[in-house]
């Protein structure tokens, strides 16, 4: 880490502490050249790239609000949605990427949503995969039947 004052190419960590439930680490650093101190914040970055090309930090609450619509009237609790959003984030982080397209976030939502509620899954999939005919629904339902038989 370059010193922001003298641009020295190295710095020494004098203190580290976690913040935000352990998702962020704040470090105090000291420059061995000019001795000035500065702080850095470190987090495992994960940003979502929208179709417009603009990136924004991954947000579990956006996942939840996207899925909540599909869950209207279904016996799905807020706690279950929170767990689903956590699973989605974990599955994306496990792939090791630091950037993901919004479309691929939808893909990561499908599996845990299927485990949670089949009707909500079909609703979400119909929007996400652009179902435009009864055949699309029939195919998706046939897939679900096959999987539940297996
Ligand atoms: Zn310096």
From TrEMBL:
- Tell me one Pfam family matched here: ATP-cone
Zinc finger regions, unnamed: 3-34
List, in alphabetical order, the Gene Ontology terms for molecular function in this entry.
Answer: ATP binding; DNA binding; zinc ion binding
Q: How is the cofactor bound?
A: Binds 1 zinc ion.
Q: Which GO terms describe its biological process?
A: negative regulation of DNA-templated transcription
Cofactor list? Zn(2+)
UniProt keyword terms in alphabetical order: ATP-binding, DNA-binding, Metal-binding, Nucleotide-binding, Repressor, Transcription, Transcription regulation, Zinc, Zinc-finger
- ATP-cone domain residues are 46-136
Q: Which InterPro entries match?
A: ATP-cone_dom (IPR005144), NrdR-like_N (IPR055173), RNR_NrdR-like (IPR003796)
The function of this protein is:
Negatively regulates transcription of bacterial ribonucleotide reductase nrd genes and operons by binding to NrdR-boxes.
Q: Which family does it belong to?
A: Belongs to the NrdR family.
The protein depicted here goes by the name Transcriptional repressor NrdR
Organism source for this protein? Helcobacillus massiliensis
């Amino acid at each position: 880490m370059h010193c922001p004052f003298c641009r020295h190419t190295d710095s020494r960590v004098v203190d580290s502490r976690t913040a935000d439930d352990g998702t962020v680490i704040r470090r105090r650093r000291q420059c061995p050249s000019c001795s000035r101190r500065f702080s850095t914040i470190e987090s495992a970055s994960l940003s979502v790239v929208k179709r417009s090309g603009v990136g924004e930090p991954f947000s579990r609450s956006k996942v939840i609000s996207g899925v909540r619509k599909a869950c209207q009237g279904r016996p799905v609790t807020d706690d279950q949605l929170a767990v689903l959003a956590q699973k989605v984030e974990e599955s994306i982080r496990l792939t090791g990427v630091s950037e993901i397209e919004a479309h691929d976030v939808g893909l990561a939502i499908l599996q845990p949503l299927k485990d949670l509620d089949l009707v909500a899954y079909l609703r979400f999939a119909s929007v996400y995969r652009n179902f435009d005919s009864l055949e699309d629904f029939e195919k998706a339902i046939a897939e679900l039947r096959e999987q539940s038989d297996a």
